[in-house]
Amino acid sequence: MDLLHKGWFTEFSPDDLERMKHEGSGDSKQLKSDGVAMGGAWPGQAFSLKVIEILFHEKSDYQDVLVFKRFLPGMSCCFSDPKLNLFCGDGFEFLKKHKNEFDVIITDSSDPVGPAESLFGQSYYELLRDSLNENGVLSSQGECPWLDLALIGKVVREYCLPLFPVVRYACGSVPTYTSGLMGYVVCSKSKDLDVTKPSRTLSDDDVKRMKLRFYNSQVHSAAFVLPQFIKEELEKK
């Protein structure tokens, strides 16, 4: 586990450490399982144990990236691309410092629960709009229509339509996600851009060369053809 730092998953806070000293254990990098103290554990090991208590203090900003690279190399290959500039930090503060700068912004966020709830609010979409250049395009995680239809309608009608001249909603099949359907809110600052049409049409040879297993130009356009119940929600007055 050369990419993982001992203690990232099992680090105690100073208060926890002081309490453990009084309880007879002074190792600040240990995990307790069935009363047995263990050294710093890696995620798979911790998952396989019957863990009684994990006292966790803090982690590196890059911990999630390193775990991703270690266990999902096929999906994380782009981390080694020289064109990548990786930033780990507060996305809101980052956007505030980059106005009228980006051609495209893609938000692949968590569900709107806890800290990620702000990524579905009007202030976030205002930041996204201000960070895009005059022809910029936004694609944001748009939740599942089967589970969060009312929220989707609110985001599209109340947050996006007042900010962008072009706002469309698309759906795609994501079997690993709850219910298997994921939505995307796609917006443009250019009123002349039709986001339902790919800016680059891929030939069959292109698809094979790029080893694409799901996406093609026809799927792109078809994603914006919505079931009636979604259309009615988005068109509510």
TrEMBL record:
<dbReference type="GO" id="GO:0005829">
    <property type="term" value="C:cytosol"/>
</dbReference>
<dbReference type="InterPro" id="IPR001045">
    <property type="entry name" value="Spermi_synthase"/>
</dbReference>
<feature type="domain" description="PABS">
    <location>
        <begin position="67"/>
        <end position="189"/>
    </location>
</feature>
<keyword id="KW-0620">Polyamine biosynthesis</keyword>
<dbReference type="InterPro" id="IPR029063">
    <property type="entry name" value="SAM-dependent_MTases_sf"/>
</dbReference>
<feature type="active site" description="Proton acceptor">
    <location>
        <position position="108"/>
    </location>
</feature>
<protein>
    <submittedName>
        <fullName>Putative spermidine synthase</fullName>
    </submittedName>
</protein>
<dbReference type="GO" id="GO:0008295">
    <property type="term" value="P:spermidine biosynthetic process"/>
</dbReference>
<keyword id="KW-0808">Transferase</keyword>
<dbReference type="InterPro" id="IPR030374">
    <property type="entry name" value="PABS"/>
</dbReference>
<dbReference type="GO" id="GO:0004766">
    <property type="term" value="F:spermidine synthase activity"/>
</dbReference>
<dbReference type="Pfam" id="PF01564">
    <property type="entry name" value="Spermine_synth"/>
</dbReference>
<comment type="similarity">
    <text>Belongs to the spermidine/spermine synthase family.</text>
</comment>
